[in-house]
């Protein structure tokens, strides 16, 4: 694990070959703690799964930059439309000119086509997106994340 920002304690941890967890711990006070996590697949077509909050963009970008060029991000995938999942989606689209949002068909239809600065790639249930040596398979889970 490497701490990429001393003030926030944002860190990046290689969890598998080419796959990293980016973590920002948050202290909510009174002994309550929370963690924001994003996942990075570094491959021919790198994918960031979740962006974190919009105001966390500099922290997540700094963590990604510790292992690859941020402008090479090809996909920004989101499981659901909330600030923690896609708060900085458009910031990522701005710094990575080839990046496309990736989401479910329903998410594309009801939100992402509207909120994202570039059209999303909507994946159907079971569809596979090749990233190079890794691939992402989409599984529709209507209960996610708060069912
Ligand atoms: Fe969420």
Blueprint (SSEs and pairs):
Elements: E1 2-5, E2 10-16, E3 19-29, E4 32-41, E5 47-49, H1 57-65, E6 75-77, H2 83-86, H3 89-95, E7 100-104, H4 105-115, E8 121-123, E9 128-130, E10 135-137
The chain binds fe (ii) ion.
CATH architecture: 4-Layer Sandwich
CATH domain class: Alpha Beta
Overall shape: it is globular
Count of all domains? 1
Which cofactor or ligand species appear? fe (ii) ion
What portion of the residues fall into strands of 2 or more residues? Answer: 35-45%
Strand order of the largest sheet: 1-2-3-4-5-6-7-8
Query: Distance between the terminal alpha carbons, to the nearest Å?
Result: 32 Å
Indicate the percent of residues in helices: 10-25%
CATH superfamily placement: Ribonuclease Z/Hydroxyacylglutathione hydrolase-like
Number of helices: 4
Q: Main beta sheet: strand number and arrangement?
A: 8 strands, mixed
* CATH fold node name: Metallo-beta-lactamase, Chain A
Notes on the structure:
With 147 residues, this protein is an alpha/beta fold. The protein has one domain (2-137): Ribonuclease Z/Hydroxyacylglutathione hydrolase-like (Metallo-beta-lactamase, Chain A), CATH 3.60.15. The protein is built from four helices and ten strands. An eight-stranded mixed β-sheet has the order 1-2-3-4-5-6-7-8. A two-stranded antiparallel ribbon has the order 9-10. The longest helix has 11 residues, at 105-115. 33% of the residues are buried. Fe (ii) ion binds next to helix 2.
What is the gist of this entry?
This protein has 147 residues and is an alpha/beta fold. It has helices spanning 57-65, 83-86, 89-95, 105-115; strands at residues 2-5, 10-16, 19-29, 32-41, 47-49, 75-77, 100-104, 121-123, 128-130, 135-137.
